[in-house]
């Protein structure tokens, strides 16, 4: 579901997303069918250098960069004219890629890992870890993050939450005035 849009806009939004994904796959993007895209990522000019495993959630405004265009400054010089700088990006199963993050060429994100919102991932992220910042550094294990989320999770009425999430969330987090 594309949050905040009316039903018609959401329908067309989904259609456009489907088309863009179909096109990226035709261009060689590898992505498992059960991945969840919240907004359409920038897969860049070499989608065929991107592999995304099963059950990965990619949130909004995520960019995958498979080349380093910064070679611009010297690539016209004769001694550097044949230099190339590309790299495959591999996201393994069950990862979460936070909003607004950028994944640079050659990065591998291990299974069951989280990339925090706004991160710039320059190096491989080990399995079962949470990486954050620019450049992204491991800040915890997935296990510790899960335990912390569980410990901090408020008590709420599960049935009421299913029926009317907005009212339940406003009970937990009321307007300040
Ligand atoms: C990374 C994340 C999972 C960590 O959650 P958390 O463990 O509850 O994080 P905390 O708030 O306890 O922060 C732990 C440390 O990481 C830092 N940190 C948290 N999120 C960060 C981020 N996005 N970028 C950089 N540093 C971050 C905190 O500043 C803190 O640092 P400190 O120990 O030096 O004070 C969470 O912040 C996040 O980014 N989630 C993804 C959000 C998102 O993209 N949502 C999209 C919804 S569709």
What does this structure look like?
The protein has 177 residues and is of the alpha/beta class. The protein has a domain of 117 residues: UDP N-Acetylglucosamine Acyltransferase, domain 1 (3 Solenoid). It has four helices and 13 strands. The model has no long low-confidence stretch (mean pLDDT 95). The site of coenzyme A has 16 residues, from strand 12, strand 13 and helix 2. Coenzyme A binds next to strand 12, strand 13 and helix 2.
Helix content: 25-40%
Order of helices and strands: HEEEEEEEEEEEEEHHH
Residue stretches low in confidence (pLDDT < 50, at least 5 long) are none
Helix tally? 4
CATH fold title of the domain at 29-145: UDP N-Acetylglucosamine Acyltransferase, domain 1
The counted number of beta strands is 13
* Small molecules bound in the structure, each named once: coenzyme A
Strand percentage lies at 15-25%
Report how far apart the termini are: 31 Å
Under the CATH scheme, the architecture of the domain at 29-145 is: 3 Solenoid
* CATH superfamily placement of the domain at 29-145: Hexapeptide repeat proteins
Mean pLDDT: 95
Q: Label the structural class.
A: alpha/beta
**Major sheet size, sense and barrel closure:** 6 strands, mixed
The largest beta-sheet arranges its strands as: 2-4-7-10-12-13
Rg, rounded, reads 19 Å
The global form is: globular
Q: What is the CATH class designation of the domain at 29-145?
A: Mainly Beta
Fill in the keyword field for this structure:
four-stranded parallel sheet; UDP N-Acetylglucosamine Acyltransferase, domain 1; 177 residues; binds coenzyme A
């Amino acid at each position: 579901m594309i949050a905040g849009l009316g039903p018609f806009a959401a329908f067309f939004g989904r259609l456009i997303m489907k088309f863009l994904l179909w096109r990226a796959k035709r261009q060689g993007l590898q992505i498992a069918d059960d991945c969840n895209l919240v907004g359409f990522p920038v897969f860049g000019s070499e989608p065929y250098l991107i592999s995304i495993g099963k059950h990965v959630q990619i949130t909004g405004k995520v960019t995958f960069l498979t080349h380093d265009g910064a070679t611009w400054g010297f690539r016209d010089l004769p001694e550097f004219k044949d230099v190339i700088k590309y790299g495959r990006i591999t996201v393994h199963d069950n990862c979460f890629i936070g909003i607004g993050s950028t994944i640079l060429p050659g990065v591998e994100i291990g299974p069951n890992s989280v990339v925090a919102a706004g991160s710039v991932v320059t190096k491989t992220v080990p399995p079962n870890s949470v990486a954050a910042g620019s450049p992204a550094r491991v800040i915890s294990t997935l296990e510790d993050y899960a335990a912390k989320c569980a410990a901090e999770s408020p008590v709420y009425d599960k049935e009421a939450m299913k029926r009317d999430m907005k009212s339940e969330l406003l009970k937990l987090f009321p307007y300040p005035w």
